[in-house]
Amino acid sequence: MTRTARWLTLAATAFLAVGLSHGSAAAETKLRITTQLPLTTPLGQNLVRFKELVEAESDGELVVEIYPAAQLFTDKEVPGAVASGQIEMGSSSLARFAGTIPAVDIFNVPFLLDTPELIRAATEPDSPVRGPLDAAMTSKGARPLWWQPYGLSVLMTRDTVVRRPEDLKGLKVRTFGKALEQFVNHVGGAATNIGGSRQYLAYERGTVDGGMTGMQSVSERKLYQVMNHLTVTNHSNIEFIVLINERVWQRLEPALQAIISQAARTVEIEMRDALAELEAEAYAVAEANGMSIHRLSAADVAAWQDATRGLKELYQTAAGSLGEQLVAAAEALRAASTP
To answer: Angle, to 10 degrees, between the axis of helix 130-139 and the axis of helix 311-337?
Structure first.
């Protein structure tokens, strides 16, 4: 049985698991989690796994309720909803913090952190890249508990194969954040910010000619039905962050904080360990459904790097001293990874 199959087998009981938390009179503390993704996805199952661990270790003193598929808040609303206390917890893409913490776009500086090994090093809890970002998000009222990896970015198109920057000129491209809009516009494309749940319809209607996303999204949202080509650019990285309201966190007893922290670390490691296999299966699904996969040559990658080199300076200008600090940290990780 593949890893994805195991995720989906667990999904059959996920809704029951969520529902059991309602009406539990013994619970002292209820933690509601909002997410834009269905529970049937790996990220949804990652939340279910957290729920199971926390409730078991706390003997029911902590009860976790999960509200999937943007039932309560959309992805862009999650950081504000958690920070303001409208909900105790939420899962949101890291890019949604860029409006208040521009430095989070370090993972969208083109080709800076562009391999699984570099991403893993940069997202370790004590990393000089992740650490300052966790602190910055906490200062806004939403404390990161764990990061959920979603993989490196890919570029889909319907009619045109994109291998070099010039191939993107004149194409309307779906993006999901300011830094990626700059990436597209910088090489002559026309970026359009469209939410993840609205991608399929935008591609189906021809609102855009292409789009950026993670490989898991291609499979989960069946985007291969409306797009023909996929280019493995790996130019940026997508992370989701599971947050808890800081006031809620500070009110928890230390023993409960420890239970939550340990469960969070466990499910983060599990998710990151599973990522490579999940992405490989997503590629297989896309190809099996007629999508053409295009991998860049070294010369292609060099052309993209040259065309987008100026975006690092734009990032540093927008992100200020914290951005400069994170770029230096990321470049040090790159240097350390080079034989």
So the answer is: 130
Q: Give every CB contact of residue 109 below 8 A, 6+ residues apart in sequence.
A: 179, 236, 311, 312, 315, 327, 330
Which tokens go with 136? Answer: 């910055």
Structure tokens belonging to residue 152: 């490196």
Tens digits of residue pLDDT in 159-189: 999 999 999 999 999 998 889 999 999 999 9
Helices 42-57 and 254-288: crossing angle in degrees, nearest 10, is 160
pLDDT per residue as tens digits for the range 99-126: 999 999 999 999 999 999 999 999 999 9
What is the residue range of 274's domain? 3-337
pTM of full prediction above 0.85: yes
Separation between Cα atoms, residue 70 and residue 73, nearest integer Å: 5
Contacts 24+ apart (CB under 8 A), 74-82: 74/36, 74/195, 74/197, 75/36, 75/195, 75/196, 76/195, 78/34, 78/36, 78/243, 79/137, 79/140, 79/142, 79/243, 81/34, 82/141, 82/142, 82/243, 82/244, 82/245
Q: Give the other-Cβ count within 10 Å of 242's Cβ.
A: 25
Q: How far apart are CA 44 and CA 150, in angstroms?
A: 12
Q: How many domains does the chain have?
A: 1
CATH number reported for the structural domain that contains residue 327 in this entry: 3.40.190.170
Residue 280's closest CA among 221, 194, 326, 216?
Answer: 216
